[in-house]
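Before any further analysis, we paired sequence with structure tokens, yielding the entry below:
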Amino acid sequence: MNVHSSKTLQESDLVDAIRLSSYSLNNPADLKPLYNRIGDAQIVMLGEASHGTHEYYTWRALISKKLIEEMGFNFIAVEGDWPDCYRLNRFIKGYEPEDTSAFDVLQKFNRWPTWMWANWEISALAEWMFQHNKGLASNQKVGFYGLDVYSLWESMESIMGYLKQKDPAALKIAEKAFQCFEPYRKDEGRSYGWAGRLVPELCQDEVIGMLREIQNKLPVYNMDHENVFSAEQNAFVAVHAEKYYRAMVKGGPESWNIRDRHMAGTLNRLLALHGPKAKAIVWAHNTHIGDARATNMASDGMYNIGQLGRLHKGKENVVLVGFGSNDGTVIAGDYWGAPMQTMPVPAAQKGSWEQLFHLSGHDNKLLIMNDIDENEAYMKTPRGHRAIGVVYHPAHESRGNYVPTLLSRRYDAFIYLNKTKALHPLHVQPDGQKTPETYPFGV
């Protein structure tokens, strides 16, 4: 997909169309058109153009609170690791009295990039959720869960801790799987991926056997249904992480697709856990929640959770909300595992969606795609849409930080924030482990 192909209108016409079609976004009340668009949707996915921008987190938190308090949404599921997020979920629901604050729980988020969830913005949201849940019955408490696939060893350790108390016989099966993976832990699975090219089913049988054993025993485990669900979910993480590491070393789109299939499957299992009328909020990068078919990801053979959600649940039941900004600052690293730092975000690239929104006026804006049918021509041209990953080089962002995008087909709504600033980490230092490199943006 050519970013500047088939120009149907002059850029000045596009700028005017954006100005006429969008709503000014100055305060929470200005989000009313978005809530009207959401209506009775079952899933709302809230994106971000980076993993280190204060305003993406705070606006998503504001929207999430409204969806929880007034529109009956049951949980937030994020682009994060299951074990870490599940600990935060237990705190939010008041199940772990030894955890006295969200700050204490978030200090344990020690996988790089730590700032992604160990930040003051998430701490404030978690404390709000904790207060919201006080006095509610267990089946009414709002949860917080991780969708991602990276936590192989942490998930294995969680499984063994659970089975040690509940099922010593199954523990032996889990220990066998853990021992198979243990030699490859130092480099976070990369050496496992390479070894898997020589022995394709290196630890596959062990993790599948562990998952089957846990699933067979679920009816006899204790009555804490969330802990039982968590044990099974950690087993799914192990099975899919094993596939992910093998696919990662081969290159191409399959590792990305394995990851997003896992996230979509986790979301579906969480919805089933919460009942037939459950509603979910998803927080993930734009590259995960914006329909991949409206970008050049599709031509590369990639799909994502936004696309899968629309296909599986129906477009009317899934609302995809993208985010973007023109300039400011962001938290990121120079390389995988690098110390976090505040970096400048330069003014958006000429001809990009972000620049056109900027030229239409320096205010924040909300664009509802249903409102632009009569102006659809200005949305038919693919244009660059910025995507900043956890590794970022501002001086070279034009080389790979813009995704060719048909904006009206990628999202149901788009929130443009003209100038943004870096979020506020809790200053947790990485523990030396590196998140596996993902394709194509590390997001």
Summary: The domain at 11-78+279-420 is CATH 3.40.1660.10 (EreA/ChaN-like  fold). The chain is about 40% helix and 15% strand.
